[in-house]
Amino acid sequence: MKFNKSFSTPDPIPKKGIEKAKQLMESGHLFRYNPLDIPENTLKNEENDGSTLYSEVALLEKEFCDYTGHKYSIALNSCGSAMFLALKAAGIQHGDEVFCNAFTFTAVPSSIVHAGGVPVYLECNTDYILDIEDFKQKITINPNVRFLLLSYMRGHISDVEQIQQICEDNNIILIEDCAHSLGVTWQNESDQRPTHIGHHGAAACFSAQSNKLINSGEGGILVTNDEEIAAYSILAAGSYERLYQQHIARPSDEIFEKIKRDIPNFSLRMNNLTAAVLRPQMPELDEKIQAYATLYDELENHFADIAHVETPNILPEVQRVGDSFQFNVVGLTASQIEEFRTSAQKSGIELQVFGHTDNARYFRNWQYSFDEAPELQQTEEIITAACDFRIPLTFTKKDLQSITDIIRTLLKQIH
């Protein structure tokens, strides 16, 4: 079957981003602390009642904060770098253990190892979110663990309010991996309006890799409301001397001058070219989210009556972004699941199974993070039957119907 576009087709860069990228390349002003001297990069500076010239990266950081509601943001070369810096800024020491999801992408435990930590893996449940009872038990078994790096895999949000409270009660610093969660909101019954995901921990980390809601190929953004984490992260990312003053979304000068000689430079900065292609995508976010929601709801309705398929539940407080689709195949053996996966791919559906032996989201493939593979029977049973594919905005209703028909037919044939 030939679909309208490939499942892996990323969202295109807006014309304005292409034009600004060309302008930057012609000027050579790619370093984040070298702004283009043009009117649109000049903002009023209320501190001295004048105006200041800012770089594409500094402007992106401000616009990202404006969107998510955070005080501070630091644009970096990847979300993995953002998680690494968040852990370092939160005070991780060599050998410290860090709780994290067993169902996530390899970049998450990699960031823990990179920061000198040791992952302690937590089970997921059938909705692909953190098993809170397992978390409580692991705290009892591991009372000295001071960090939780919580992943929202594919935008599936756990009960963040309950997790936040558990962390506060046990002196655990919560850092949120929001790589798949830009635009996702949380609103409980007492909230007057929804809040963007990323406000329940000390810091949150977002991705701009090609298959995310904003696309720069590679890129990440660390956001926080904590001035000490923000100042550390700005300096450690590669701000030296007084370059921190070229950041818009930053704390006051005093905190930088107090700590800057004690912070190593890890050189993880985002460059202006990356920021230039991201900035025009920010005003389009809400429109894209609505378009994805329309496609996701249509597909979810199609899947409701397919035998041997279960889709994950979403907590009522969550408004997710449906840029990908996940479901579990039930009642099939491991060999039947593998037959289904390969048959779907031959039929043109770029489908993956999270627990496949070569999938970077399967915890047994993270051998760099343990001496002996952890026993995580619940997670293993769930993700070995968990299927996933992207939903490009270029897909039509006809494409969605074809996906549904193929999957229904294949499952009937296999079972």
List the helices and strands and how they pair.
Blueprint: H1 15-27, E1 42-45, E2 50-53, H2 56-68, E3 72-76, H3 79-89, E4 97-101, H4 107-114, E5 118-122, H5 132-141, E6 147-151, H6 160-169, E7 173-177, E8 185-186, E9 195-196, E10 203-207, E11 220-224, H7 227-238, H8 253-259, H9 272-278, H10 285-303, E12 309-310, E13 318-319, E14 324-329, H11 334-346, E15 352-353, H12 377-383, E16 386-390, H13 397-414
Parallel strand pairs: 4-5, 4-6, 6-7, 7-10
Antiparallel strand pairs: 1-2, 3-11, 8-9, 8-13, 10-11, 12-14, 14-16, 15-16
Helix pairs in contact: 1-9, 2-9, 3-4, 3-7, 10-13, 11-13
Can you give a write-up of this model?
This protein is α/β, with parallel strands linked by helices. 36% of the residues lie in helices and 15% in strands. The chain contains 13 helices and 16 strands. The strands form four sheets. The protein has a seven-stranded mixed β-sheet with strand order 3-11-10-7-6-4-5, with helices on both faces. A four-stranded antiparallel β-sheet has the order 12-14-16-15. β8 and β9 form a beta hairpin. α1 runs antiparallel to α9, α2 crosses α9 and α3 packs across α7. The chain is globular. The mean pLDDT is 95.
